[in-house]
């Protein structure tokens, strides 16, 4: 039983419980719809709903047939390969360019800082449909539409803001005197950068890279406009599946994607703790 | 800045030589900083800014008709817009239509004219089909008569006005259409006669985005408050429930809502099994489903900034106010709420900005009623191939978003966006 | 330096990956049961025979996507299965390559191609006939209730048959049906639809059931809608319903009144870089043997020599056995009116 201070009246106590159950309700609203997918993906029937057998926990009502369907379908396999291929290269591109720029922006001598920052972050704000429409016209001119390179460039542009944000965040606690100390002790700027700056921003770079990867991995609007049939990705395949034939294979894929996101969530949390330790922030 | 001035200004403690050295050093730092940013700037200029600029340009550049029938347009210049143009124009048009039909480009002309005069497409196409069979010499002699005989529309000024308007290479037509306006032949702007769609759609999009933002606020605020005031261990654990959806693919979340809301879906099966309803409720493919699914998807964007602001508020403020006799509600309104405003405005603006431009979720769960402005842009890009109009609609949306982004940057600071 | 190597790696890697798929031919069709039959009888045997890789992509019909690719100069599709109702328009707008009849194979019995194909199959220079199919509407015996529909009028009669109607989100077929249900004689439909008054009349008829319509984009959605009660009546390609009855044992029934039959053809997107490969595939796919597999999904083959190989039990289910009850889709009408009626239809939808 919760202990309340003396000045808490009846209404206040009621409010306290109301708040608690509202909070639980909202948490349920956030998580339950996602979790509902998991058992449904083992449905033996080709539907999106619980059968009587499933509710009775009859093992006959469950099966792995939709997981087998992923493996047996060439299009899904191609989509999985493409998603990783495009995601990885887009991440590398976004992380390299974004980290350099974030370090530059962190310098107090950087001219037009606010304007440049706003520009670099804008891919996160501009609606995807506008970016997609623009890229469709522009990339076609350079024969980039329908190629891997085109999608990698497009996704890298979307990932850049995340790298900027996370790296800037690690740099904000960075004591610049460390850098100057390195320089004054005769180390070259490059060496100082490598030995002093890089270890400090590494957690930011890695979490930025993860955001960039997830952005690409989850992106479908640009893919719908820019990709050819050879570049279909997992979200693209899900999108057309949901539009055309709703079939539990999508639920099986979704379950696997939920596992992937849990993996990301855990690694990001570990990173955050490491970063805080490095920067000397105590929990 | 203060430091810079101290170095570059004439500090009496520095000799002239030292000051010059310091200035050179400063320039070098500036250059290095700039050099680090330049690759990304160039990259984004090519990959992101230039594409959007191209799109803006397409919104008022439309050379198609001018390229298809240059001869007719040239002869049409002196025509004042009343009555039928003279026979030279008609003959030229007949010849142009024949030529276009032969090279299979009459469809393009039909499409372009149809945008200025609904219904013109079928007239252009069927006329081109008829004239295709005639010889060039025959058309040179009686092209005008054959054209007039092919369809009565050719003897009306409306079609020729449409031809003249469509022939302009630079045009504000698309932008006007995007605002449900049109220009009369005399040049006055009036509301579009043949249907007003887009202003309504923008209003609806803004209304839906507002509802979604309010829903997120309504659900997010109590939860953020609860988490911020819970013991750290509990809060950290419950935070997973917020972060898991945040990290889960948005297609997965949309799929989940389809599974829940469809006619035979989880919610309806439950309701019918529990005899709460007899006929399944129609929830999927409505405005309702769009709002619910988008609230679910965007809720973490509201909770995270609220949470980080609330964690910084000393709980003793509230306790102090209440122990001094303030009623909880008034203590909340006068003490707590103002302190959470930075997080609240950050979250609300972010959710609003994202939902105004949303495409995927309305496309999948919105049916015909839950469509937003992005879906119409996609429609004109992919289905009706009216790229000029898509560009104009996109530009208006972009202006709207940038205004909001500017507000966000002004009040919250774009650099203060927090992740996770 | 590490970074330069990385960037070079990115560029080279993606160029290699792009190059690796350059020689694949992209074949686009309607998916579902029909797509599966094409894969079984046309695509897989072709790959097995020639070793050429095919990418098989689904679309939901119409010319919009082909048009976007051709006009933007961004050709992603090579061979497309298209309805004749759209073929005339696509061809007259210069979106398709001409296919010379000389590329076609003679029948397995030796008949030259020009005589072996039914005349409609080669009527348009941009396409080679693939199947004869039709659009009917169907219902689920489990959900229909006491009164069963028999005519196209019933489809528009919500008092007699209450419930949702699934219709494909485009003006084609829907406007024809609306007029026939409103009393226009089937052979006068296109004449009436060419007039302003006729178009108003068709939309007015559609208005009477507008709130009961579930719109779909892809044919594969209909069996699903009928199955889970999302719709009581569903407009459908006959093969999809046939397949759901035969393969999945669904209690579906087709209504043949005023069905609108048409051909599907193979066509080649204008400006494809793989024209020879595309022609080679079409030559194979329209051969006697591959075409004779189409009745798997109750679609009639377009070659007389293939018809000879068809299982006689399937014949009553083929559209060709129901020609008297139906009308032929008018490709020329839709070539001329597709644009303007499409626009009116979309405005009507948004009202």
UniProtKB/TrEMBL annotation, chain A:
- Which cellular components does GO assign to this protein? plasma membrane
Q: How does it sit in the membrane?
A: Multi-pass membrane protein
InterPro entries, per the entry = MetI-like, MetI-like_sf
Write down the species.
Sedimenticola thiotaurini
Q: Which residues form the ABC transmembrane type-1 domain?
A: 80-268
What's a BP term from Gene Ontology annotated to this protein?
transmembrane transport
- Please give the Gene3D superfamilies that the UniProt record associates with this protein: MetI-like
Q: What is this protein called?
A: ABC transporter permease
| Protein origin, superkingdom | Bacteria
Q: According to its UniProt record, where is this protein located? A: Cell inner membrane; Cell membrane
Family designation: Belongs to the binding-protein-dependent transport system permease family.
What CDD domains does UniProt report for this protein, alphabetically? TM_PBP2 (cd06261)
Pfam families (UniProt xref): BPD_transp_1
Keywords of this entry: Cell inner membrane, Cell membrane, Membrane, Transmembrane, Transmembrane helix, Transport
Q: In which broad location class does this protein mainly occur, judging by the first location in its UniProt entry? A: membrane
List where the protein spans the membrane.
21-42, 84-106, 118-139, 145-171, 209-230, 250-271
UniProtKB/TrEMBL annotation, chain B:
Write out the transmembrane intervals: 31-53, 208-228, 240-260, 288-308, 344-366, 387-408
Organism superkingdom: Bacteria
Q: Name one Pfam family in it.
A: BPD_transp_1
UniProt keyword list: Cell membrane, Membrane, Transmembrane, Transmembrane helix, Transport
Q: Where does this chain mainly localize? A: membrane
GO CC annotation, single: plasma membrane
Share an example GO biological-process annotation for this protein: transmembrane transport
Which residue ranges does the record assign to the ABC transmembrane type-1 domain? 202-408
Q: Which Gene3D superfamilies match?
A: MetI-like (1.10.3720.10)
Record bears the keyword Metal-binding:
no
Tell me where it resides.
Answer: Cell membrane
Quote the PROSITE patterns the UniProt record gives. ABC_TM1
InterPro entries, per the entry:
MetI-like, MetI-like_sf
Q: How does it sit in the membrane?
A: Multi-pass membrane protein
The record's family statement is:
Belongs to the binding-protein-dependent transport system permease family. CysTW subfamily.
Q: State the name under which the record lists this protein.
A: ABC transporter permease
The organism encoding this protein is Sedimenticola thiotaurini
